Amino acid sequence: MDLLSEVLAVSGVRGVVGTQLQAGQDWGYWFASQAPRAALHAVTSGTAWLGLPGQPPLQLMPGDVVLLPDGAEHVLGSGAEAVSRTGPRSYDDWHTTGSGAVRIGAEPVRAHILCAHYGHDAAVSTQVLASLPSLLHLRSSPDGGQLEDTVRLLGRELARPQIATSIVLERLVDVLLVQALREWLAGNPVREPCWLGVLCDDIVAAAATLLHSNPARAWTAGVLAREIGVSRSTLSRRFAVVTGETPGTYLTRWRMDLAARRLRDTDDSLEAVAHSVGYTSVYAFSRAFSRLRSEPPGQYRTRARSVA
């Protein structure tokens, strides 16, 4: 089982193309906070600068990708001065083209930037993007790579739109997120306890894979340790360092994520939902669910469906 694919799928992470910027000279464009959605920008040609409140402007080069996992308020502009002057009430003149792109700044067009955002299923507490720092700047490599290849594909699709271009762009945006995560993890060891650390530790990854593959099994730390060929103390120690919790706590939270989705999205009985995540009685399941979600499963089902 591919853990990252599993968690991204269950947590419902999906990319949506937002703005396609066609930028000229001396321009600035302000983005309101998109929380809880993540924001991403890919510079398919030209250069731009990114500004975040309280931080120095950051120059973006052709092929660069920036990801803001918490969707914080930010500015894109033609230079450091343009970024500093741009705010919620100081947009530079811009207009929408016939293709839906945003044209901003004096002619000629010097930069093309794809802006996207990523939503997730609020019913799931296990989130990949929440494990990331507030800003990821992935620089284009002179040698090229998968991330650069995808940015180039985006650039070609934007430059020459064809039938179903919108579908191609949204699929590529999803691919871009996975490649950004791969590249960031390859160059940035995870030092703080979080879910992404699971992918960087062989023992914890092997244990988590078993838990995800069969969450309804009556797992104990001892059984799990034997399955992956380590001692119980080693497994418990590594799990705590990497995730900040015990294997049992991790499993319970994942079970409740699966149960929450099933409660909201199906008419299955509480007994069926309980058995699907490893509980032999509705009472034990309800108690565990209430402890983690602060409301009983029946009440959660009613509220979640009304919100949806």
Structure summary:
This protein has 308 residues and is of the alpha+beta class.
Approximate shape: elongated
User: pLDDT below 50 for ≥5 consecutive residues: which ranges?
Assistant: none
The CATH topology of the largest domain is given as Jelly Rolls
Number of helices, where a helix is a run of at least 4 consecutive DSSP H or I residues: 11
CATH superfamily placement of the largest domain: Jelly Rolls
| Major β-sheet strand ordering | 8-9-1-10-3-6-11
The structural domain count equals 2
First and last CA, distance: 30 Å
Largest beta-sheet characterization? 7 strands, mixed
Number of strands: 11
Domain HTH araC/xylS-type: 205-303
GO molecular function: DNA-binding transcription factor activity; sequence-specific DNA binding
InterPro entries: AraC_lig, AraC_XylS_family_regulators, Homeodomain-like_sf, HTH-like, HTH_AraC, HTH_AraC-typ_CS
Pfam family, one: HTH_18
How would you portray this structure in words?
- The chain is α+β, with helices and mostly antiparallel strands and about 300 residues long.
- It has two domains: about 5-185, Jelly Rolls (Sandwich), CATH 2.60.120.10; about 195-305, Arc Repressor Mutant, subunit A.
- The protein is about 45% helix and about 20% strand.
- The protein contains eleven helices and eleven strands.
- The chain has helices at about 5-10, 80-85, 145-160, 165-185, 200-215, 220-230, 230-245, 245-265, 270-275, 280-295, 295-305; strands at about 15-25, 30, 40-45, 50, 60, 65-70, 75, 95, 100-105, 105-120, 135-140.
- The protein has a seven-stranded mixed β-sheet.
- Strand 8 and strand 9 (about 100-105) form a beta hairpin.
- Helix 3 (about 145-160) packs antiparallel against helix 4 (about 165-185), helix 5 (about 200-215) crosses helix 6 (about 220-230) and helix 8 crosses helix 11 (about 295-305).
- It is elongated and about 70 Å long.
- The two termini are about 30 Å apart.
- The relative contact order is 0.13.
- The mean pLDDT is about 95.
